[in-house]
Amino acid sequence: MIVNIRKDGDQYMAYFIEMRRLIGVNQMGADIINWYFNLGIDKDQISHRIVKSYCIPPENAVCDVTEFLKSINLELQPSRFNDTDQADVHLPIGIELEITSACNLRCIHCLQSNYSALYIDLNKAYSIIDTIASAGVFEISIIGGEPFKHPSIFELLKHANDSGLAVGLTTNGTLIKKRQIHGMAKMKNLSVAVSVDGIGEDHDHTRGNGVFIKIDRTIRRMLDSGIEVEAMFTVTSYNIDRYKPVLEYCNELGITCNFNLFKPFKIGHVALVPNPQQFFELILTLFELRSQNKSQIGLSNSALVGHLLGLPPKNECRAGQAGLVIDVHGHMLTCPSLLYCGYYKESDFPLFDENFIETWRTHPLFTGFKRNGLRGCQARSYIFSQNVSGGDPYDLTSFINFLEKRKRF
Ligand SMILES: C[S@@+](CC[C@H](N)C(=O)[O-])C[C@H]1O[C@@H](n2cnc3c(N)ncnc32)[C@H](O)[C@@H]1O
């Protein structure tokens, strides 16, 4: 297991690539993690080292190391809350890089208004990857458009993988060639999310005729090659009642099914908005299934999940706190959804350069975005109530009201 470790302010951040998990520790913790996970040193040897380096009494050392590693293993369990999006960090944890706006599909729920054939220049992408990797960013997610429309997608993924970043990708899964699968199987840090909005006709209803057959073949091929694959299910009013077959499909394949809530951006999207109560019921069901280890389920609604786990209030939003999006033109975006819904203009955003951390920390657009609050989703608030700081019908306050009403009836 590889762990990337960086100093961040007064603490150290240990990022476990395979699990995409971040744990904040002190210097001794960082050393123990590095020795144990990266260098394969055994607990006895580590105990000797901490006695020498940290003046730990020899009689306590073995016990301290054992207890510490136990607590780390517990934190890494899939059912534990993933703090990766919540950390108060001095530089982004992960970056999303939009490499193209082109797409071969026209999904009914799609957030894009423009599918023009823009492709990020390969050297520019390499330079962004090198800059963020050497700055200590842990993750890169390749986004689009459809990433496999980019003629150099494979080289791009390879470069990101070789730079030691955890590499993620969301794809519609229809354009991935056999030889690309073969090459991707050699990338140890890569995880591929394929959009699955239903099984068979349900998926095709959203994405076009014949799409499900294609992605099913590709998902199975990728899994057979040893690539880490997950499903991404975007919840709309059309498919909210049709998620069970998708979970069964993911169970059969042994993969995680991530749930992502649809946001309306176009007039025609209004009918696809799921009823919040129905969505909250879905969250409760999925949370229950996940707790019982019946399915591998990814829930992006951190505030709601944190509440169900009985944790202190968590942020719903990862953008701006631990994340950063770079669009196909090289702009640094806080939240792309706020651009799509018209709250920002593209020209508002600064361009990415080697000073990106300073920009991310101090540019008025980023500081203002954080000030508006990260507890709910600012884009949903803006879409549903024209106010970024309140009015998200799917936020924690609405969820708590829903739970209270539910208790009474
Ligand atoms: C924008 S797509 C781009 C990647 C790729 N072309 C695909 O379809 O997976 C990334 C993810 O966003 C989801 N998505 C698209 N429109 C959305 C919307 N209006 N609200 C929420 N998610 C959306 C898609 O279902 C997909 O899982």
Give a written overview of the molecule:
- The protein starts with a strand and ends with a helix.
- The strands form two sheets. Strands 10-9-8-7-6-5-4-11-12 form a nine-stranded mixed β-sheet, covered by helices on one side.
- 39% of the residues are buried.
- 41% of the residues lie in helices and 15% in strands.
- Strand 2 (11-16) and strand 3 (21-25) form a beta hairpin.
- Among the domains are: 3-75; 84-261 and 292-299, TIM Barrel, CATH 3.20.20.70.
- The protein is built from 16 helices and twelve strands.
- Helix 1 (27-38) packs antiparallel against helix 2 (43-54) and helix 2 (43-54) crosses helix 3.
- It binds S-adenosylmethionine.
- S-adenosylmethionine is lined by residues 103, 109-111, 143-144, 146, 170-172, 195, 232, 234, 260, 262-263, 265.
- S-adenosylmethionine binds next to strand 6 and strand 8.
For the residues shown, what is the average pLDDT?
94
Indicate the percent of residues in helices: 40-55%
CATH fold call of the domain at 84-261 and 292-299? TIM Barrel
The CATH superfamily of the domain at 84-261 and 292-299 is identified as: Aldolase class I
SS elements, strand count: 12
The bound ligands are: S-adenosylmethionine
Please describe the biggest sheet, giving its number of strands, its sense, and whether it closes into a barrel: 9 strands, mixed
- Going by CATH, the architecture of the domain at 84-261 and 292-299 would be Alpha-Beta Barrel
Low-confidence stretches: none
